[in-house]
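Whiteboard transcription, Tuesday session. T.W. wrote the structure tokens on the left side:
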């Protein structure tokens, strides 16, 4: 008789689950794009580009993103571009600066410059 509560507790514990099943944990998928800004010169045309995977092998054409990339390419203000993308549902996720190349000054050999680009990673929830 004194083992009956112990046996009942053990039988109930076998059926209990401590964590939710993986199917219950549904994550909302995101779509990502990168705004790539060439930091060398501020007035160079095409210094701002939108990378949404269009050059990847097997990429599917996306007319909405192509139109956004065309509008962005004409802009000279990064803040304007970020606000434009924000109005279209994109949120800034990460910013990183990447060194693209180093070069020497044309005036003397002692001075060197580092060319870089800033990459703004953005994401948007997929419907």
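and on the right, the sequence the group agreed on:
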């Amino acid at each position: 008789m004194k083992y009956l509560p112990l046996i009942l507790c053990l039988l109930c514990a076998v059926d209990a689950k401590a964590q939710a099943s993986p199917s219950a944990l549904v994550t909302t998928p995101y779509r990502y794009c990168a705004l790539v800004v060439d930091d060398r010169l501020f007035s160079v045309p095409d210094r701002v580009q939108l990378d949404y995977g269009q050059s990847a092998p097997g990429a599917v054409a996306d007319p909405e993103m192509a139109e956004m990339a065309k509008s962005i390419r004409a802009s000279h203000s990064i803040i304007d571009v970020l606000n434009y993308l924000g109005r279209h549902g994109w949120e800034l996720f990460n910013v990183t600066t990447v060194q693209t190349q180093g070069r020497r000054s044309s005036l003397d050999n002692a001075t060197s410059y580092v060319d870089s680009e800033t990459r703004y990673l953005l994401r948007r929830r997929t419907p």
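Someone added at the bottom: The helical segments are 4-15, 63-73, 78-87.
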